[in-house]
Specification:
Shape: globular
Oligomer: single chain
Low-confidence stretches: 214-252
Radius of gyration: 23 Å
Number of domains: 2
Mean pLDDT: 79
Structural class: mainly alpha
CATH topology of the largest domain: Rhomboid-like fold
Number of strands: 6
Strand content: 5-15%
């Protein structure tokens, strides 16, 4: 855990995937009731600097273009499930940083376009380019970055393409990456900037977490459960020695909310420690930040 997270992690927005889906739902509702009202919510940097500062936030309500209500519901459920999985695995703070940094990079790109347009041609050119920014900058690319992050974290997770064709997340991500590359090459300036800035957060995330993404853990951990006399966990140290660690929270009568399935530590033992559930383990297993990416996944069969 970084020092920055220790200081500001408490301010992270919890249940951010649910908040995002509710924003999309409100946006789709506005589109069906009064689509013209979305013109006052989209990301127009020229209007922002002229007093309509709410656009910095309300553009997140503008959903991707889609008129099929069934597909919209499926999409909302899919992105909610993906977001919840990432938040549980990464933690609330890291998921917040990933999403908010992607939004921030897109805002920087939008205002950079307006600034360059103003330098090149004055207010009229800046206003015109800002209208194009409003048309092309949307949450579509934020959604793509979430999907790519999920595929990098859980490459073997299965999706049902067209509701019945199973496909692994890593292959779906490859398809999306190709589509995004085609859009970048064939698209105009605004598409390229929107796409590029929205994926900066994914590139940073991937480059800084490559050792824990979709690869076999470097230091494997194993544990055995004993139902008699409490839970006894066995962890392998760096010297190769197997050391049993007894779960003392149950025997001492202390009720804890989190407990690592490898070392047995709880929030009582390490108040600043982060605990996460592993989506690859079959069962409800939680791990501390030290063992989240280094444990042996539990398989029932």
């Amino acid at each position: 855990m970084s020092e920055f997270e220790r200081k500001f992690g408490r301010y992270a927005i919890r249940n951010l995937p649910l908040i995002m889906i509710l924003c999309y739902g409100v946006g789709y509702l506005i589109r069906y009731i009064n689509p013209g009202f979305l013109m006052y919510l989209n990301l127009n940097p020229y209007e922002v600097i002229h007093g309509q500062i709410w656009r910095i936030i309300t553009w997140l309500l503008v959903p991707p273009n889609d008129n099929n209500i069934i597909w919209v519901l499926v999409m909302l459920f899919c992105y909610y499930s993906i977001g919840v999985s990432l938040e549980r695995t990464w933690g609330t703070y890291k998921f917040n940083v990933y999403i908010l940094s992607g939004i921030g990079f897109m805002l920087v790109g939008a205002f950079a376009i307006m600034g360059i347009a103003y330098i090149a041609g004055g207010y009229l050119v800046a206003a015109m380019y800002s209208q194009y920014v409003a048309a092309y900058f949307s949450t579509y690319y934020i959604n793509m970055s979430i999907l790519l992050a999920f595929a990098a974290t859980f490459p073997d997770a299965m999706f049902l393409f067209m509701f019945f064709i199973p496909i692994k997340a890593k292959w779906m991500a490859v398809v999306y990456a190709v589509l995004l590359a085609v859009q970048f090459v064939t698209g105009n300036l605004f598409i390229r900037v929107a796409l590029g800035t929205s994926l900066i957060n994914f590139l940073i995330f991937y480059l800084t977490n490559r050792r824990g993404l979709g690869v076999r853990p470097i230091r494997m951990q194993s544990f055995n459960r004993s139902r008699s006399g409490g839970n006894v966990f066995r962890s392998r140290s760096s010297t190769g020695e197997v050391r049993p660690t007894r779960d003392l929270s149950r025997s001492s009568g202390i009720v804890t909310r989190h407990k690592c399935a490898v070392c047995g530590r709880t929030e009582q033992d390490a108040p600043d420690m982060q605990f996460r559930f592993c989506s690859k383990c079959e069962g409800n297993y939680e791990y501390c930040e030290e063992h989240l990416y280094t444990h042996t996944h539990v398989r029932m069969s």
